Amino acid sequence: MNSATSIYQHLKQKISRKFLLVFSFCSLSVGGIVWACADYGYDYQYSSFSPEAFVSPEYTPFFYAEYISYYGGGYDSPYDKNTERYNDQVVSDWYSYFDKKVDSGILNHLLLKASAAGIDSAYQSNSLKADKKKLKAFFDYLSLAKSAEKFAATDVMYSWEPQPAVKPPVEFEASLVKSFKKSKDAFIKQRLWFQLVRYYYFSEKSDSTLLPEASKTLKTFEASKNSFPQNMMHYRTLGYVAGWHYQHKNYAVSNYLNSLCYNYSVEAKIPSEWSFHPQEEADWNKTLTLAKTNEERATLWHMLGINYDPLRAIGQIEALDPKSDKLDLLLARIINITEYHISGGNGLSSLDSAEKRELKQNTTAISNIALKNNTAKPYFWNLAAGYLNYLSHNYTAAKTFYQAAKPQLPPGDKLVMAQYQILDWVLYVKELKKIDPEVEAKMVAPLNWFADLKTGKDTISSLRFAYALDSSLHQIAGIYKKQGELVKANALENYTDFYIQNNNIEQMKTLLQKPNKTAFEKTMLRYYPFDLQDLYYHQAQVLAYQDKIDEAIAMMTKSESEGDKMLANPFTMRINDCHDCDHQRKQSKEIYSMDVLKTIQLMKSQIKKGTNVYENAILIANAFYNMSFYGNSRIFYSGEVMQSGGNTPFEIPIAFRSMLLSNKIAEKYYLIALRAAKTNEQKARCTFMASKCEKNESYNLVYTKPENSNGNEWTVTIEPVFYGAYFSILNNEYDNTKFYQEIIKECGYFKSYVNEH
What we know:
This protein is mostly helical. The chain has helices spanning 3-18, 87-97, 104-112, 116-125, 132-152, 172-182, 186-204, 216-224, 232-247, 251-264, 266-274, 281-290, 294-307, 310-320, 326-343, 353-372, 378-391, 395-405, 414-430, 437-455, 466-482, 486-492, 502-513, 519-524, 532-545, 549-558, 579-584, 593-609, 613-627, 654-661, 664-676, 680-703, 726-733, 738-746, 748-756. The radius of gyration is 36 Å and the shape is elongated. Residues 1-43 and 156-160 have low confidence and may be disordered.
């Protein structure tokens, strides 16, 4: 768990002991404007439990999401467009008002997009075919509504800053009051009532001393609330009344009214939930006394449970109505939160004592409810109880609950059936101790099913299967490793250490080429990421770094690949390594990996014959240097198997680090060139290049330490570079050469050595 999450969870735990219900660090909003906290993205990678399988879609925004305000939210999501929340309903209402005689697209433009000038132009054109009295009333209302948007429909997103003060114009009140009193059309009059209540809310918002009996917001709402139907417009108006009570510290009333809005419609759920802020236990108890029905009480507990203490809320709702769908969301949240804490950490052992107590309480309570078998979806509760027991390592209890759920599952529900299959599978794998042909036969069908999901051959919307698959493959591979069956282990969970031993690679090649594979072998190889050509290519690379060039060429030929194009000429060298400088040089011809090998092969044959030994040896040395991490042709070791990229040695898997960092072979050929050199200038060059190899090997002593296998440039200290033998030879024997003067200017290490000696 990261530090920010830990702090947040710690705050919630501190709050829980005193039951101080403070749910948000952000500003309150009402009436459709959500002042959202910053969104950071999703974190479902540790989840194997899909809430979509069990919970009504209307509760989707409140599924557990670690780093964002609402599940599926974030930048440019539907939840991001706060002033557009009710747009569809608004257009639909007016479309019905005009008896469907005015095109909905035109209404959408006039209501939501057109300017005041555009509205006036549309009215003057007299082109709309509808009742003239209704049209006039519509355009009169629309003119007022557009004016109200200036203070009531602002949209501030992702801000930690307080809501900016918005003061509506004083003179606007008279226009609204006059139009409201004058209107005889019930549909429009209700909308004018909404506009008037909203106007008073913004007018009175900053006066925290205003008493309820003096509030025009409350008086205007109460005077007409029974004159209109309790539709969306009613509850949007009620939202501003709830906001007024919150601003004036009447928290119990505010929260009760918000719960009514929440329960009315999908569109109202987010702003109502965001504005739901109980403060303390006494305040919460007062809120509960305002509820008139069990449904209202269940809604209040449900909203409380979304943000705080879901288990307490579940207990209260279950006592009121065990078949309430409001239980489903809270149960799903408990499951997903538990998954994140356990799977997102280091397993059950990563929980602190308070989290372990909470897990035990949740598991016991959910198990007890499941055993009653009286909920609307008993299979959901059995699966949840089984999964919580599984996460608690109570595997026998988990199996019992899964067995109880199996006959209860809705057979036509593909997502629910898949969820059961995932939970049953991970439990089965967790209990495996050894794998024999009988077990392999049982694993064929589920592993093929997962493979179909992974490759997209089969798709089940909203199913979370990746973590379950990866963790189970890891478990199975671990068993195979213990049994000494490394090829099967690597096929299911590819790991780089496998490729250190050539014998392992040959066994994998044999399996890939096996003519009559078993059903399990065919299934297993669906997870293996490489083909035969990849393995040949990897062997060619390894042989190249062993200076077995003839064999490397033969293997690369079998791979049916010429390799990668070099970004620079690997046969050139400079005093200071500068990859970018070399890459910017225009090459006279394209050079591929195979070209490098064949050129080295030719030069080695000439050295063997005694032809141009100095020239050939120094070019081969340059190539081996440049093919290492330190050179300009690192791309030589790129490949499917090697997976060695990046700009630091720590981005090379530890299995290949010694091989790809080593300059031993380059040093060998520089010394061959040195022995064949005819001039001191040539000898100085060879000696200096050997010193570069020697210096790099001092770095490698640190990079290749096993304890630094998972380190990085920030966590590993590089030991001081030793100068070695070659600087001494340069300084003592070749100080009169031109090349000596060049390296004094270019190489800071050598210059420091000279200054010291």
